[in-house]
Amino acid sequence: MLTVLLILIPLVAGLVTFGLKGSGPKMLGLIASLASLAVTVGALFQFRTDPGAAALKLDASWIPQLGAKFTLGMDGMGLMLCLLTAISFLLIFIVIYNREYERANSFYGLMLLSQAGLVGVFTAYDALLFYVFWELALIPVYFLCSLWGGEKRIPVTFKFFVYTFAGSLLMLVGLIYIYLQTPEHSFSYASFVSGAVSPEDQSWLFWLFFVAFAIKMPVFPFHTWQPDAYEQSPTPVTMVLSGIMVKMGLFGVVRWLLPVLPKGAYMWSDVAIVLSIIGIIYASCIAIVQSDIKRLIAYSSIAHIGLMSAAIFTNNEQGLQGMMVQMFNHGVNIIGLWIIVEIIQNRLKIKNLNEMGGIAQYAPGIAIFLVVISLANIGLPLTNGFIGEFLMFSGLFQYNVWFMAVAGLGIILAAVYTLNMVQKVIFGQSNALTETTTDLKANELVVLIAITGIILVLGFYPKPMLELVSSTTELVNKVY
Amino acid sequence: MNALISTALSGVVMMFAGLLIGNKQRIKIVAIVVLLVAFAANLAELSTLGAGERTYYGMITVSHFSILFNAIALGATLIFFLLSGSAFEKVGEHVSDYFALIFFILAGISLASTFSTLLMLFLAIEIISIPQYILAGADKKTPKSSEASLKYFLMGSFSTGILLMGIALIYGATGTFNVAELALGAGKVNTLALCGIILMAFALSFKVSAAPFHFWTPDVYDGSPTVFTSFMATVVKAGGFIAFIRIFHGAFVGERLTADWQLLLAIITAATLIIGNFTAVFQQSVKRMLAYSSIAQAGFMLLAVISMNTFATQGIILYAAAYSVATIGIFAVMIKLKDYTFDGFNGLARTQPVLAITTTIFVCSLAGIPLTAGFFAKYFVLAAAVQQGNLLWLVITAVICAAISAYYYFRVIIAMYFKQGEAETEEINGGFKLMLIITAAIVILLGIFPGLLLQFI
């Protein structure tokens, strides 16, 4: 019931929002996201007391002719991502509360629909249902970017849509093939992981799934849509894209690739890891030379996701656990960074780093939070980014020392571009424009305090998060 | 049988209606009423049929499948009449005759879904084709319409000749016209029969505008009065596919034989998908884009013809319904616009939000986005081809083409929502909007519960 509520709340609220006027949409958006967070916290408590509770599941008939059912459920990873979704949407809605969007009803409506789609992806335990939610999460984002984005939004969003749609269709072929191999012709998760697919089939089916997930993450060389899309999207949508939506790809690998095609994944893990590592180095190098702050963060995100995708294929518990914890932490940190970008962009209407400088003198609040979040983003010890990165590198080290050594260069490069960005934005010489910067408003302060709180708490005490995802890690290790 | 009789009679009724009723609006109402009667008569046969099928005089065989297909064809035509019926008046004076011709086409389609001899198949194809040649040239004021009609007639006659030749060769090889008695699959494949099958495959490919026999399609669709293009591209095309699938799945079955024509049709399918999709990308007129997209969609439907399994039968039913309804919907919207180019749709979301949102749903369905009927239509035909086993290369080609199709379909959405402009439309009444909403609701309903249709097979 709780899982259904998590989808229904944003879905119904989203549909209702389309018909509202004035400040109605933003109010409903806030209420719905608060309610979603409350339900997620309820689910979290339920999960800790009884992971198999009926309240976390749903199994209803859908298309009997196909053997597809409306099956929802929660495991540690799904719950963690639902929590990330709920927190992120609430923070986003709070921070944009005093912004006025044209056609606000459609904006908030589409945002809520994308939330429903995302939660659906993280909770679906039927392959066809997963596919449907996978696509549904994409459609509202397509409209959000195309309607409220930057100057080049239409071709950029279109490229993003066609890329991901092509990947999804390949995955659909893979899903159909596996479905036909299952003895009882079913899309249920249990049937998919039953091992019905032969190793020969797994070797090529791997690519149908991997390409779909790699585009979404994005992993080199499937990443070309990402920097443009992040740059051109309105910042709240970029937060959704980079904070939550890229996690769909990582989630897909853990939930639908590793357990369903373990031999295929084992066969191609070297290639997948090498592609991921190329992505880390390549994106980091490009990030260093970026002068557009949105593009810089976009490329830094490719590098971070590259490490996570490498860690998935390391075939050991530490790598996987680190990756899962990092999914949450990266989501929080990157959203924090985007919030600061949004605040600066809203105040100064610029994105070029070379035009910024000296903000610390006029807006110390912004400066403090930017430093804390940036340091968390590069995985400084005692911030939330550290534990995940440590575990992932440790996993990678166990898999192949050389892979770890090359990927490790990413830490140095990340420090270079991140500190360079911090330097250019808040320190140095101020100019006529940056001198007009005003400090944080109450709602912005609340959001950034919340994010910093999460960063520090999980930096000092990551155990609850590690425990939450451990059930999924154990499951994945069994199938190799 | 009921569908065949009732649609043929309906055609005659409409011809007399033209003599007796002067008011064009009333003629449309009469057409809708007789269509509803035909729809009911078709469904009524279900109760008398029982579990099996019934053959009449060794010529036609009525089954659950044929009744369901006829229901879809008649249902789609009903939506077509309700949405676009008033556009008949703009084509020319002979409104009742146009309705009559459409009923005769429907009679041909119901024959195509029930034939049990090759002769009946030939008749079905001809009954479907000839009224279309006339409808294509119905707008006598426009030279393009006459050109379309002539082109269609010449090419159509040519393909009919090929079909007849194919039938003659098969008759020569087997000595019978009866589909059930052909027994081509047993033993060694007769060369004469194989030639016949190939000729029939070519002729039917022409009728469903599969590449490389598609050249007539864009010109004919573009030149014909838009309202009739809508019908030709949807219900009629589905009728062609039903004939295709019934003859190839029903009569040309055998281990060696099936492999032979499957390869031929697989190549035709790949060519259709690639040519249809790639050419549609470059079109500036939505009408021509839809013409090429109908070629592309034919490629998907051909996947069902190639695959010999239950998914294929379910797929063709779902595809016929999903594709017809969505395309009729988008054509109905286009008829109301003054400019048929993509730019003509610019800013439609601001001026006519209902039209824009329903068009979005139709376009998403054509592209195969989940929760619209088009998704499951594509799903079933892809599943059929995957299950076939040796066609994975074709399946991958198809999904890549489907991704390309998103490009041109979404151009309509981009124009409506994201581009500045004042799309000029004719006056649009509440009834039309309501019908559009109902049509879009059908698309979504079938997209969530495809079982609603499939349970009847």
UniProtKB/TrEMBL annotation, chain A:
Belongs to the complex I subunit 4 family. The lineage of its organism: Bacteria, Pseudomonadati, Bacteroidota, Chitinophagia, Chitinophagales. It is a multi-pass membrane protein. Pfam families: Proton_antipo_M. One of its GO terms (molecular function) is ubiquinone binding. The keyword Transmembrane helix applies. GO terms for biological process: ATP synthesis coupled electron transport; electron transport coupled proton transport. This is NADH-quinone oxidoreductase subunit M. The keyword ATP-binding does not apply. Its main location: membrane. The chain crosses the membrane at residues 76-95, 107-125, 131-148, 160-180, 204-225, 237-258, 264-289, 296-314, 320-341, 362-382, 402-422, 442-461. It is found in: Endomembrane system; Membrane. GO terms for cellular component: endomembrane system; membrane. Keywords: Membrane, Transmembrane, Transmembrane helix. Residues 124-409 form the NADH:quinone oxidoreductase/Mrp antiporter transmembrane domain.
UniProtKB/TrEMBL annotation, chain B:
It is a multi-pass membrane protein. It catalyses: a quinone + NADH + 5 H(+)(in) = a quinol + NAD(+) + 4 H(+)(out). One of its GO terms (molecular function) is NADH dehydrogenase (quinone) (non-electrogenic) activity. NCBIfam families: NDH_I_N (TIGR01770). Residues 118-403 form the NADH:quinone oxidoreductase/Mrp antiporter transmembrane domain. Keywords: Cell membrane, Membrane, NAD, Quinone, Translocase, Transmembrane, Transmembrane helix, Transport. GO terms for cellular component: endomembrane system; plasma membrane. The lineage of its organism: Bacteria, Pseudomonadati, Bacteroidota, Chitinophagia, Chitinophagales. It is found in: Cell membrane; Endomembrane system; Membrane. The keyword ATP-binding does not apply. NDH-1 is composed of 14 different subunits. Subunits NuoA, H, J, K, L, M, N constitute the membrane sector of the complex. Its EC number is 7.1.1.-. NDH-1 shuttles electrons from NADH, via FMN and iron-sulfur (Fe-S) centers, to quinones in the respiratory chain. The immediate electron acceptor for the enzyme in this species is believed to be a menaquinone. Couples the redox reaction to proton translocation (for every two electrons transferred, four hydrogen ions are translocated across the cytoplasmic membrane), and thus conserves the redox energy in a proton gradient. It comes from the Bacteria. GO terms for biological process: ATP synthesis coupled electron transport. Belongs to the complex I subunit 2 family. It holds the Pfam family Proton_antipo_M. This is NADH-quinone oxidoreductase subunit N. The chain crosses the membrane at residues 6-22, 29-50, 56-83, 95-112, 150-171, 191-215, 227-249, 261-282, 316-335, 355-379, 391-410, 431-454.
